[in-house]
């Protein structure tokens, strides 16, 4: 895979990191062996970091300090991935792509998955949807942040006094290309309820279940 | 071992060789017979012919009397370990039991080289009469003369020209030669074993009949010791404490470990065993690379002993006493519960640095190490290697990987990864080296 002449794909990263990654790409070109993207694996269009190939990353570490660091790394990675791929829900027993790495033949154990996700919940970046801890809602934006995004959306589109259905917020024409596009319904409802409590809008039920509506009074 | 006159300006005794743990170094064929503590050796003459030796352990062997200062006595130059050959004793005075002697500590007097009289004062508790009997036995046994005879024989025998032929040797005894010789040797061994067994069984029969009484008596004693209050104040209770100690000693000789002894410095038996063990441990420890498990040591020690094996509990007690003496070995317990004996000089730092060198090699950066890999490279037992790897993990040097084919350890890269910039690989540090190492894998 020749990288000459191609622009290096990137997500939102800092300049320095970009430069650094570019320098790594250049060293690839110089070396005799050209790895077919081996080192920088991808999941869809999401670039995985190097340490994703580090086997101990997939074993729950017993030593406290090491484990804390490990949890931190997993948290950042999951949040980044979910944000970029718009994943809102993780099933602990399901095949969430980050939980295994076939290149090094490692998979996170159930205990490890639960530990890492529970760490999120503790920090308010996730919520368990059931008592059995099988499904986890990922809040890569906190509910408060989503509320702010909704308000911004309302203002930018001049919807201050109008009425919309909840579904329209998720998939209407105004939402296309924004963060609100495809937002998880549960999260959206939570954010809307938060705003309702603040008096920014009013929720009402329509004729059918799909037609739950919102009247903004921003 | 020629006898020399020792009365010189420097005193009566030779300096005795002692090991680093305080055990006497015995000569060839020399056997230890008796040991007593809290013994003084005084000169009876006035002015004294030699500097008195106060408060030490007196060891009677087949060849010598050895006096070793106990740790409590002050370390002045005159209190060096000293020995006196039994061959130089010319007369042992009989022990007169008078009313006066009942109030004193028991003592023995003997004459050395027909000149100096030495008084041995026994201030401790011990079988004084047994010691005296043994002293007579050893003195009369004259084991040193046999040594001399065999030595002179050996030196003259090698020069002899004629080689014994046939079944009978030069001195008329039957030669142990060929198959017949082996068989005859075996036969003689069996006969002597048989005889000693018979003797033993006589005693054993007598003992068995008393066994039940003994056990119940011992149990009663034990209960009494346990129930008596352990701490008393006031001088008037010294006598009671003294008799209690006596009971403990006696019970130990019967073979019952009193729980009371654990709190004190330990009975004399355990102390001496502890010292002996510290000496013995040195060589297997070196062979095993500085650290050896307690079970391995149990095996080595008992194998060397042959008879009079020690129990695992004795071994454990003896090792525990090491911290009270100044010996160069120590007992160490790992978090996993494994107990090992290691040299005090054996440092953890040294092993850690060796592990670090091992895991930062390019190959091992990529694949990690198992306990058996580490054992091979560091040249230590696999169980020890695992312990070292686990402690390195606890220190944060390594982290673990639960692979399909077992537990592996890698150099711990987690501290080097920046959580705020997941894709950043710094130029310095092992993380970059690891990335390089893994990229060398074929596509």
Automatic annotation (TrEMBL), chain B:
Localization terms from the record: Cytoplasm; Endosome
Main location: cytoplasm
Pfam family, one: EAP30
Keywords assigned by UniProt, alphabetized: Cytoplasm, Endosome, Protein transport, Transport
Cytoplasm recorded as keyword: yes
All copies of domain GLUE N-terminal, residue ranges: 16-151
Role played: Component of the ESCRT-II complex (endosomal sorting complex required for transport II), which is required for multivesicular body (MVB) formation and sorting of endosomal cargo proteins into MVBs.
Subunit structure: Component of the endosomal sorting complex required for transport II (ESCRT-II).
Family of the protein in this entry: Belongs to the VPS36 family.
This protein's name: Vacuolar protein-sorting-associated protein 36
Source species: Brassica napus
